[in-house]
Amino acid sequence: MIGEMRQEAERLYRLAVAAADPEAAVRAALERQPPAGPVRVLALGKAGVAMARSALAVLGDRVREALVITNAENAAVLPGAELVIGGHPVPDAGSERAGQAVEALLTRLCPGEVLLALISGGGSALMVAPVSGVTLDEKAAVSRLLLGAGLDITAMNMVRQHLSRLKGGGLLRLAGAVPVAALILSDVVGDDLAVIASGPTVAPIASRAEVRNMLRAQRLWTALPASVRHALERAEPEGALPAAVNRLIGSNGQSLAAMAVGGGEIWHARLEGDVSDAADWLVARMKAAPPGPVRAFCGGETTVVLRGTGRGGRNQELALRVAAGMDGVLRPWVFLSGGTDGRDGPTEAAGGLVDGGTLGRIKAAGGDWRALLANNDSHAALSLAGDLLVVGGTGTNVADVQVVLMG
C-alpha cells in the first residue's frame, strides 16, 4: 500500500511540473498576442531554454537575436540562440558574464524593434551586473548571508535589486525607447512580478531606505560588506521608469490546481515562513485529518535558517521534519515536498518523499536523524532512507509543491 501511495505522490508532483510547461505557456501567449515588428529575445531563468525554444519556433525569422541565460542543470544547445550559464543559488563568474551579455544585447537594440523578455525563477542569481563599487564576490557574499539568515525571496530580492544595474527595472532603463514585452513564469508565492528574478522589467519592490531599515531590523546591516552598505546609502535613481508590457503566463497556483483536478483538497496555497513552523502546521493538520483516504496539496516556498554545516534544502528539510513529527502514527501516510525546478538547494535532489518507515530506515542504515537534522543535513538523512526525490532539471520553476496522501 505504501509503495502505491509513494508512486501516486510522485505522479502528482509530475503533474504539477507539467502544468507549468514553459514551452506551451509561451506558445499560447505569443499566438494570442504576438509582438509587433522585429524581435530580440532575452530568456532569463531556469526555464530559459524551454521558453526561448518556443519563442523561436513561433516567431521564426522575425527574431534578429536570441540570448538565453540559465543554470547548468537546464542548459541545452539551442540553434539560433547564444547560451550563457550562470550560478545558482549563489552567483558566480558565469552570472557576471550573463549580465555583460545582456548589457551588450541592449546596446544593439534598434528603433522599430521589440525586446521580448522571457523571465522565470532563478534569474536573480543567474544574471548579475553589480553597481559600481561592488564586486561579484561581495554580491555572492551578500547572497550567502541572506540565504543563511532565512530571509524569504521577497526580502532577498529587495536587496539584490539595488545592487544591480539590470534588476528592479534596470533593464528597462538600459533599453531606452525600445518597447519591452515580458512573458513571466512565476516562482514566488503571490506572483509579485517585482520579485520574480528581481524584476528586471518592473519597478523595485522597495526604496533603498526601506531596504536599509529591513536589514537593520534583521540585524544584518553591519554584517554586509562596506561597499554594499555604501551602495544602499546612495540616492534613489532619478526619472520615471519606462513602461513595459508584463504578462504572467504560469504560476504555482496553476500547478496546485492541476494536482487537484483528479480529486483532493488544497490545504495551503501559501506555505511560507520557517520550515520548522511549516512542518509543525502540516503534522498537526495530518494528525487531525478525518478517517478514510486523504489527498491534499500545498504550495509556496519555506525558508531554512542555517545552524549547521550539512547539505540539503528547504524541501528535504521539510520532508524530514514531517517524518519526525509523524513518528508513531500508525495510519498509512506519505508526504512529498519538491521544487518544481527539480533542484532543492545545492543538491541533485528536488526534495524528499517520506512515509512512516523513513526514520526506521535512517536508523537501520546507521544514521541519527536528530543529529543530521540539527546539522541541516537533511540530504544525508533522506539518502540513508532512500527517500530523496531526484528527477533532474525540469526546465521550469514555479516554486515548491507538497503532496499529502493518507489511508
List the helices and strands and how they pair.
Layout: H1 2-19, H2 22-32, E1 39-44, H3 48-59, E2 63-70, E3 82-85, H4 93-107, E4 114-119, H5 123-126, H6 136-148, H7 153-161, H8 170-175, E5 180-185, H9 208-217, H10 226-232, E6 245-250, H11 252-260, E7 265-274, H12 275-287, E8 294-303, H13 314-325, E9 333-339, E10 351-355, H14 358-364, H15 369-374, H16 378-385, E11 388-389, E12 400-406
Parallel strand pairs: 1-2, 1-4, 2-3, 4-5, 5-6, 7-8
Antiparallel strand pairs: 8-12, 9-10, 9-12, 10-11
Helix pairs in contact: 1-11, 2-3, 12-13, 14-16
Explain what you see.
This protein is an alpha/beta fold and 407 residues long. It folds into 2 domains: 168 residues, 3-Layer(aba) Sandwich (glycerate kinase, domain 1), CATH 3.40.1480; 230 residues, 3-Layer(aba) Sandwich (Rossmann fold). The protein is built from 16 helices and 12 strands. The chain has a 6-stranded parallel sheet, with helices on both faces. Strands 7-8-12-9-10-11 form a 6-stranded mixed sheet, with helices on both faces. α14 crosses α16. The radius of gyration is 21 Å and the shape is globular. It starts with a helix and ends with a strand.
